[in-house]
Amino acid sequence: MNDLSMSLQQQVMQAIGNKTPLCITAGGSKAFLGQETEGMAIDVNAHRGIIEYDPRELVLTARSGTPLEDIENALAASGQMLAFEPPHFGSTATLGGTIACGLSGPRRPYSGSARDFVLGCKMLNGRGEIASFGGQVMKNVAGYDVSRLLAGSRGTLGILLEISLKVLPKPAASVTISRECSQTDAITAMSELLSRPYPVDAACYDGERVHLRISGSEQAVSETRKKIPGETLPDADAFWQGLREHELPFFHRPGTLYRIAVKPSTRPLHLNGQWILDWGGAQRWLYSDEDLQTIRHQVGLSGGHVAVFRGGKNETPLPAPLLALHQRLKTSFDPGNIFNRGHLYTTL
Amino acid sequence: MNHHPLISELKNILPAESVLHDTEDVRPFECDGLSVYRQLPMVVVLPETVEEVQRIVRLCHEHKVPVVARGAGTGLSGGALPLEDGVLLSLAKFKRIIDIDVENAMATVQPGVRNLAISEAAARYGLYYAPDPSSQIACTIGGNVAENSGGVHCLKYGLTVHNILMLKVVTMEGELLTIGSQTLDTPGYDLLALMTGSEGMLGIIVEVTVKLLPRPERAQVVLAAFDDVARAGEAVGEIIAAGIIPAGLEMMDRLAIRAAEDFVHAGYPIDAEAILLCELDGTHAEVSEYIMAVRKILTDSGATEVRTAADETERQLFWKGRKSAFPAVGRISPDYYCMDGTIPRRQLPRVLQQINSWSAEYKLPVANVFHAGDGNLHPLILFDANKQGELERTEEFGSRILELCVEVGGSITGEHGVGMEKIGQMCTQFGSTELHQFHAIKAAFDPAGLLNPGKAVPTLHRCAEFGAMHIHHGKLPHADLERF
Fold first, then answer.
1. What is the rounded distance in angstroms from the CA atom of residue B335 to the CA atom of residue B387?
2. Which among A136, A143, A149 has CB closest to B457?
3. Contact call for A59 and B431, based on CB within 8 A
4. How far A46 CA sits from the closest chain B CA (Å)?
5. 3-state SS of A262-303?
6. What burial letters (b/e) apply to A39-64, b meaning 16+ CB within 10 Å?
7. What pLDDT does A1 receive?
8. Which of A56, B66, B402, B417 has a CB 3.0–4.6 Å from the CB of B147, allowing a cystine?
9. B191 touching A, CB under 8 A?
10. Is the pLDDT of residue B473 over 50?
11. Which residues of chain B are within 8 Å of residue A198 when distances are taken between CB atoms?
12. Structural contact between residues B291 and B307, judged by C-beta atoms closer than 8 angstroms
């Protein structure tokens, strides 16, 4: 256990004094995300340790540099998990990076996102102050929900020092049902399940087959298994793990990987390339040679948005009034624009 | 009578019947569900379109007149309390369900749509909107977003913030912003999280897109009686430790049980020190499996009696007792004062013991109802405001309870909001760094500081102010509503 709060605070105070921009780093597993940012590195990696974990409270509090693996191991020992199935993208992933990037895995549409599980945090802001928001309880409506705002803010508002998360029991049983179908049929099938009372907790179309994961009590799984046609997928854990970590063969190709977010029922988009549909169709991964403007236009027609995820840099545009609000919010946390300057948006 | 020039300008942009300023016309808007605070607004406006809302706030911005938005007025913390020199902007006319998108399990509605009306409209598709605050037959979705409302099903299904996708919001400058999207995430900061629970301080919500869930095949409730409150608390931990997340998990103590039983005859064991209500939902076989498991856990934890509701009627009756606990307590005491603290569940024995000892010290009885699953405690302090000094003693007692909640790692409010009521206790919960940050966030959205000023976040020099939920002679506004 190492508490580096004081040292980090001193480094921030110094940077404020010298007007030196800072780049927050930890495990570096998600360094490929976002825009290039210039600044002196401030390393949170050694600020680690689980501070409190009581399985009966369903709450875990840890320092931001704690390896994600350590957290998942501690939870697994009590039969619990991070229900948003965060992608690690490498063994060095930390809790702080996971929350700052706000990424969630296959279970996201059915259990909630990274930010949904954030209960509270302690942070270091751009005035060099340490502030606590939220707490270690499930329900808390005192003050603005700053801790959830920080999830996905990519370190542009400050340095996360401690994070409290809601955790959940691992399901007692799980089975994945798989069948061959077209993308159109897969979209229809996954979308229909949204109004069925089945304990589906992941749904993916891999380009050839639709995979539906059912998890819950033994009874719930065996009862539901009978209602959904298809074969049982052997080695299902490896498949979902591969999808979550981008380790499936699909992801082993050169070129630009686009992440497209749409309404789950959105018909197949008319864009050339290779697709995997995760999140029941709501998150679609695309390798394509089409230019970004074409992709953005097509995705925009369906009300969705696209981001360059790997193999390139480009920010997803915001409407001008929203961008202005982002800038004012950034200033409210970080008046000297010290943290991760330009990382989320070049003008932020 | 001299009217503020704003009033005639409002009449130029709105139909005459949508601008109210005679005392008798604005009287119904003088308070929300926390009626101890009353204030007549300068003027009430009832716009019907987003464009009208934009024109109203632009005028107010020009005149530097503050605006308080209001839904159904069922809030319990004075968040919609009008300002004497301000405009009260009622969203009562925004009652349209714009779209139910079955394929994507979402509904887009205007902010004045009642919480329950969404589930009613979605029912034909087997869908519903999960958060169920007790006032759900009357409270509106816009107010739910403003307060980040909960309900009995929070532990499993989350709060409002977990169940909404997109908002349309009008800023104090009259700009229409779309926050969030119909997809599962949105580029940029998570403004949806920030807006939810912001108590009308950051923008006026004019449209809400909510997530819908499939109605579970089956729900069943188990009632367990205990002769010791701590043991009941322990049983809650055992259920969670067994890997079961109940749809609802509620606790009541002896005084609350007796009051509820006298009121609605739910069949509660009146000699018990505590009862637990544990609701399980899911597929048919899953619910059966969990009921067996939960019954065993409860028995092993020392329950003196464990009952499963025989049928849907009895299930509803078990819940009716719980949901009527507030008005039931209102029948046995001239006044009561409701707290809304949250605590880590393991602190329950310590907190209850301390409340009991203060109860003896202050000579004020307390009935406890508790969202046990998520640690949200509602102690109801019984008192008589007509007795000299009793209200003051009650308020002092209440403050000490909230301070204790913070001390054991909890919060001053789990679901009722800060509003006017807990503005003082915010200073217990937060230091000046956090409060300063809240003010800075407010200024980023509303630089002129005209949206619901004076609520939710105390100025540093106001930190000593306190308020309370004070129910006189059991007369709760909207007394017919079930409350938690």
1. 11
2. A143
3. no
4. 26
5. CCCCCCCCCCCCEEEEEHHHCEEEEECCCCHHHHHHHHHHCC
6. beebbbbebbebbebebbbbbbbbbb
7. 56
8. B417
9. yes
10. no
11. 214, 283
12. no
What share of chain A in percent tops pLDDT 90?
96
Residues of A in contact with B162 (CB under 8 A): 112, 116
Looking up tokens 């095949």 gives B217
Beta bridge partners of residue B99, listed in sequence order: B108
Q: What is the pTM of this model?
A: 0.95
Instruction: Copy the structure tokens of residue B374.
Output: 């998520």
Give ipTM to 2 decimals. Answer: 0.97
- Are the beta carbons of B434 and A152 separated by less than 8 Å? no
How far is the C-alpha of A338 from the C-alpha of A335, rounded, in Å? Answer: 8
Q: Give me the torsion for CA of B202, B203, B209, B214, rounded to 10°.
A: 40
Digit-coded pLDDT (tens) for A84-134: 999 999 999 999 999 999 999 999 999 999 999 999 999 999 999 999 999
pLDDT at res. B476? 46
Pairing of strands B19-20, A305-310: unpaired
Chain A contacts in chain B segment 430-459 (CB below 8 A) = 430-431, 433-434, 437-438, 440-441, 443-445, 456-457
CA distances from A219 to A36, A233, B220, B245, B289 (A): 50, 19, 16, 15, 7
Q: Where are the alpha helices (DSSP H) in B334-385?
A: 348-362
DSSP character at residue A42: E
Using the predicted structure, report yes or no on whether residue B318 has a pLDDT greater than 90.
Answer: yes
* Residues 6 or more apart whose Cβ sits within 8 Å of residue A54: B344, B346
Q: What angle do CA B291, A165, A258 make, to 5 degrees?
A: 105
Q: Is B466 on the interface with A (CB under 8 A)?
A: no
Report the residue from B243, B374, B441 with minimal CB separation from A172: B243
Residue B307 CA, chain-centre distance (Å), reads: 30
Q: Give residue-wise pLDDT tens across range B284-294.
A: 999 999 999 99
Interface of B with A in 121-160 (CB under 8 A): 125-127, 147-148, 150, 154-155, 158-159
Phi first, then psi: give them for residue A94, nearest 5 degrees.
-115, 165
Among the residues of B363-479, which ranges form H helices? 390-407, 426-429, 432-445
Mean pLDDT for chain B? 93
Cα separation, A18 vs A124, in Å, equals 17
- Between chains, do A143 and B438 touch, taking CB under 8 Å as contact? yes
